[in-house]
Amino acid sequence: MSKNKLFLAKLKALLKEYNADIQFACAPSSYTYGIYDGGILIRVDNKQVFRNHNWYIDSKEIKVTMAKKLEEMTPRELAIHEIFAHLDGIEENCEQMTSGNFMHNKNACKFSAQIIRNRLEAIGIKDIEEE
């Protein structure tokens, strides 16, 4: 089974198992001249469990939304979230270094990101998904 077919089969099974659906949503005031407050809505047993205000969804979007809505974060929480999001980005970029001299840089890059995470956690600052 191809990777795409496997993904769709797993998604179908999850939607069925949890009686879930994914919808594109917009404000009731939307009409033929424009769509307002558009985004993606996920429901489980006809109860909304996720809503964003974008036209895309990925694992990071779900992580942030499920942990705590950005607009509900205090300035400190938002700053912490942004720091960890940047660390996630650094680690993803490190993974793309794959050849020659980049292998040494890849390991150094990942090690540096981990040191920052460890130092933050040592002073009691954790990513919002862990709180």
Put the structure in a nutshell:
The protein is of the alpha+beta class and 131 residues long.
Describe this protein's structure.
With 131 residues, the protein is of the alpha+beta class. The chain has two domains: 3-57, no CATH class; 71-130. 50% of the residues lie in helices and 13% in strands. It contains four helices and three strands. A three-stranded antiparallel beta sheet has the order 1-2-3. The two termini are 38 Å apart. The mean pLDDT is 76.
| Number of DSSP E strands | 3
Order of helices and strands: HEEEHHH
Give the strand order of the largest sheet, numbering strands 1, 2, ... along the chain: 1-2-3
* Helix run count: 4
What structural class results from the helix and strand content? Answer: alpha+beta
How much helicity do the residues have?
A: 40-55%
Question: What is the overall shape?
Answer: extended
Largest sheet: 3 strands, antiparallel
Q: What is the averaged pLDDT score?
A: 76
User: In the residues, how many domains can be counted?
Assistant: 2
Span between N and C termini?
Answer: 38 Å
The radius of gyration computed from the alpha-carbon positions, rounded to a whole number of angstroms, is: 19 Å
Would you identify the regions where 5 or more consecutive residues have pLDDT less than 50? none
- The portion of residues forming beta strands comes to 5-15%
